[in-house]
Automatic annotation (TrEMBL):
Residue ranges of the TM segments: 350-371
Cited InterPro entries: Kinase-like_dom_sf (IPR011009), PASTA_dom (IPR005543), Prot_kinase_dom (IPR000719), Ser/Thr_kinase_AS (IPR008271)
Start and end residues of each stretch annotated as Disordered: 318-341
Key words, A-Z: ATP-binding, Kinase, Membrane, Nucleotide-binding, Serine/threonine-protein kinase, Transferase, Transmembrane, Transmembrane helix
UniProt xrefs under Gene3D superfamilies: 3.30.10.20, Phosphorylase Kinase, domain 1, Transferase(Phosphotransferase) domain 1
Limits of the PASTA domain: 375-440, 516-579, 580-646
Catalyzed chemical reaction(s): L-seryl-[protein] + ATP = O-phospho-L-seryl-[protein] + ADP + H(+); L-threonyl-[protein] + ATP = O-phospho-L-threonyl-[protein] + ADP + H(+)
Top-level class of the enzyme under EC nomenclature: transferase
GO BP, sorted A to Z: negative regulation of fatty acid biosynthetic process
Protein name (record): non-specific serine/threonine protein kinase
Enzyme Commission number(s): 2.7.11.1
Species: Cryobacterium adonitolivorans
Length: 649
């Protein structure tokens, strides 16, 4: 990101030491700049808290916590923190500068990574997290944006802005800290986190590296949070073919919804990853063996041998020219011994034959028993979405007995099979009972009152009731404060549930949220009024000009929507503009008595000026002329000068 030419921080000297050069990135709490440490003559990254947050004690404490958390870690895979301080109105944090890109940039460029690349990055991140977990620190915001890939090949994890102690796992008191795409189920439902929450986020990040996409997406953040809390992360290989089974299992282990079923910390997961790497990237054993050099004597002997068995003691072989022993008198007569051995072999053969027949009979009986007899096992077929009649017929054809159960489901229509017990793929004995769970549709739930809640609180209440936050429509309302819910409706039938009501689990609830009252631009100049309304996302244009006794000419009298219906961002508004007071024609009062003429003119709203200074004299006279003259049109409220007749003729 390039720096803004109007950024006041560019060129500023902070704390008399750090010269700000350019802007690197901007986040929710702070902006990161490239700076020069003038004291040590090195480049650093300096994170400066946004000005509107610097006065907030909670944000400032969290900013300082990041410095302290990261400073406790000294590890090659963790971004080093050098300094932290306050310079006038600026709270800052100084870190090592790593020229390079983030993992997010890499994913944007390449879509998805190979299993080997994924394991390399994962090993580095796990090593850094393992050091954090050992030091008692939970990162709480593991995501690709916080994994830095330096130009020199180093991989580091940074941004411990949400970090806190491992044993401090109580509710944060804030709404879902961290990025929603990587939030663990316990953070969504209970607002608590420990080292296993980092593991979950890392599992989601691993899925994204392998597939190029996140497992859960939605139009609203709360829809994604609901999926984290209620769904199971699929195997990456279902999206990206070629992902090894071992990496599938690693992702499923890291993203288990129950924290107790995940690795307890990064060290445990790192050890498992190293084992997976040995399986996924096995070493070529023959390539790694050292060259074998045979002893000279053995090598020479092998030239005449048909077979050599290395490693055994060498047999003593007589030379081919050596004479055979010639003393036949010493050799025993072996005829009797040979006859006895033959008899023993025949007897042993009978016993072996009988044993083979017996074993064959047993094997045949076992084969019948377990193959087609009472002991045979049958694989339960998949019957999801089948009708109960079809499922029953299928089970009976397999020699199984069907029983009926019920189950609520948000995905299978009522009246069809949701699941079986035992589940599909299970092997059961012939004649076993399989329960067919028939869908009753979604689980009935009761929604709480939603009108008047903030949009986030309403979405949380919907999720807690086991429904899904749906579309959010925003409109301007004079009677409802900005950010509060005006109304809520069931997406299934449009029924109003603003004050709560009956609904079903897993179905969407749509919200209408107030943008607050329209800005009051009455009395504003037209151009100023258009600018004020455009700042609110509205389109404004000057319309009819109307006479007004109270609004100055050229200023706005009123605002109206160009079309009927609610006013939303992007709506067009028509401005009624003042033409000033409506002109009034001066009546002819010449010849009237002073008091008569005065009454006529003041009734029309004119101000009067007397050419003779004293009313006491003027009332005795008649009006000779007016200035402006009778018949002239002037603005209401204008001043008219009356000239009386000459009292002396």
């Amino acid at each position: 990101m390039t720096e803004s030419p109007t950024d006041p921080m560019i060129g500023r000297l902070i704390d008399g030491r750090y010269q700000v050069r350019s802007r690197i990135a901007r986040g929710g709490m702070a902006t990161v700049y490239l700076a020069t440490d003038l004291r040590l003559e090195r480049r650093v990254a300096i994170k400066i808290m946004h000005g509107h947050l610097a006065d907030d004690n909670a944000f400032r404490s969290r900013f300082i916590q990041e410095a302290r958390s990261a400073a406790r870690l000294a590890h090659p895979n963790v971004v080093n923190v050098f300094d932290q301080g306050q310079d006038a109105d600026i709270a800052y944090l100084v870190m090592e500068h790593l020229p390079g890109i983030t993992l997010r940039d890499l994913l944007k460029d390449y879509g998805r990574l190979t299993p080997e690349q994924t394991m390399d990055i994962l090993e580095a991140v796990l090593s850094g997290l393992a050091a954090a977990h050992k030091a008692g620190i939970v990162h709480r915001d593991v995501k690709p944006e916080n994994v830095l890939l330096a130009d020199d090949g180093r991989i580091k994890i940074g941004d411990f802005g949400l970090a806190r102690a491992v044993n401090n796992n109580t509710a944060t008191g804030q709404a879902l800290l961290g990025t929603v795409a990587y939030l663990s189920p316990e953070l969504v439902t209970r607002g608590v986190a420990d080292a296993r929450s980092d593991i979950y986020a890392l599992g989601i990040m691993t899925y994204e590296m392998l597939t190029g996409e996140q497992p859960y997406v939605g139009e609203a953040p709360m829809q994604v949070a609901y999926q984290h809390a209620n769904d199971t992360v699929p195997m990456p290989s279902l999206v990206a073919h070629g992902v090894p089974t071992e990496l599938d299992e690693l992702v499923l282990w890291a993203t288990a919804r129950d924290p107790e079923e995940r690795p307890r910390d990064a060290r445990v997961m790192l050890d498992q990853l190293l084992d997976v790497e040995k399986l996924v990237r096995p070493r070529d054993d023959t390539a790694m063996q050292a060259t074998m050099v045979l002893p000279r004597g053995l090598a020479a002997a092998s030239a005449d041998a048909e077979t050599q068995i290395l490693g055994r003691r060498p047999l003593a072989v007589a030379p081919a020219s050596a004479p055979l022993p010639a003393d036949d008198d010493d050799e025993p007569d072996n005829t009797a011994q040979l006859a006895g051995s033959a008899t023993k072999r025949r007897r042993r053969g009978y016993w072996l034959f009988g044993l083979i027949v017996l074993l064959a009979a047993l094997a045949g009986g076992a084969g019948w028993y377990f193959g087609v007899g009472p002991g045979s096992e049958i694989q339960v077929p998949s019957l999801v979405s089948a009708s109960p009649e079809e499922a029953t017929a299928t089970l009976e054809e397999l020699g199984l007995v069907a029983a009926q159960g019920t189950e609520y489901s948000t995905t299978i229509p009522a009246g069809l099979i949701v699941s079986t017990d035992p589940g599909d793929g299970a092997r059961v004995s012939k004649g076993s009972t399989v329960t067919l769970n028939v869908s009753q549709g979604p689980t009935p739930i009761t929604l709480p009152a939603l009108a008047g809640l903030s949009a986030d609180d309403a979405a949380m209440a919907i999720a807690e009731a086991k429904a899904v936050p749906g579309n959010v429509d925003e409109m301007f309302r004079d009677d409802v404060e900005e950010g509060l819910v005006i109304s809520a409706s069931r997406e299934s039938d449009g029924g109003d549930v603003s004050q709560g009501g009956d609904y079903f689990e897993g179905l969407n609830v749509n919200l209408v949220v107030s943008l607050g009252p329209l800005p009051d631009v009455t009395g504003e100049a037209v151009d100023d009024a258009i600018g004020i309304l455009e700042d609110k996302g509205l389109v404004a244009t000057a319309g009819e000009e109307i006479y007004s006794d109270t609004i100055a000419e050229g200023d706005v009298i009123s605002v109206a929507a160009a079309e009927e219906g609610p006013i939303r961002e992007g709506s067009t508004l028509i401005l009624s503009v003042s033409r000033g007071p409506e002109p009034v024609e001066i009546p002819n009062v010449v010849g009237m008595s002073w008091s008569e003429g005065k009454q006529v003119l003041t009734d029309l709203g004119f101000e009067l000026k007397y050419q003779l200074g004293a009313d006491q004299i003027a009332v005795l006279l008649k009006i000779e002329s007016t200035d402006p003259a009778a018949g002239t049109s002037v603005a209401k409220g204008s001043t008219i000068t009356l000239k009386p007749t000459n009292p002396f003729g």
